[in-house]
Amino acid sequence: MSSMMTVKLDYSNYVVWKHQIEVILETYSMIDVISDTVMAPDQFLRDSSSSFTTEVNPDFLIWRNREQALFTFLNSTLFPFVLALIVGQESSRGVWKVLEKCFASISRSSVMSLRNELSAVKKGTDSIDVYFQRIKKIHDRLASVSVILDDEELLHIALNGLPSNYDSFSSAIRTRSDVLIVEELNTLLNVEERAIRKRFGVIDTSTMAMAANYQPPGFGRGRGRNNAQRGRANGGRGSNSGGGFHPNAPNAFSSPFSQSQPIPPRPSGP
């Protein structure tokens, strides 16, 4: 339980929790209990003059049973550190409104922070694939708080973060009449990255180390260290060239907002 207490309280976890709860409530026809558009029935029946009597309204009893069942269910899905936010609430609608209000402010600050982080990302000395993985990670975090960026916006962000030796490439991409998808831009930038490395004679030492131990069948361009050594041993001249990049596998991560959610029992009538 102590590890549950340290889970980061953020808007992305709330969005996932809210979606799961709404699906369950729709399935059990209980979404109206937390809706502002549906009012609770009067507690007592009215007489012919519309005055309240002392007789309890059966519809109110049904409503109260559903309300209390949902209130208990919602509390059972929340971790203790979230329950602390709703202390004093006595209805499921009250719980729902408190959480919405709390996380509305968190969502605004979270989105602004992530957008600033995305605008500031730079390629630096990273490979193109590492650079795109950094962009993708921030993009996915924005998507988790319901902010979806289109390909054109991501394209400009990716181009803006490139160093000056990609200026010609960036200009050519920006003057295209069609809009590339992000995956196509990634592919083109990998080609440009290899061309720049070749142009400036940059050697990828990690690739050379791999080539020294193994060369896959069909490896046609350039000779690795083993070939160069065999050429020298035979009196010939060997070449020692290398290049390329190593794509990083995407990271997958998640942090739960709530505990496992039990299915609430269908409330019984009065």
Automatic annotation (TrEMBL):
Listed name of the protein: Retrotransposon Copia-like N-terminal domain-containing protein
Composition bias (Gly residues) maps to: 233-245
**What domain of life?**
Eukaryota
Please name the Pfam families in this protein's record: Retrotran_gag_2
Which intervals of the chain are annotated as region Disordered? 214-270
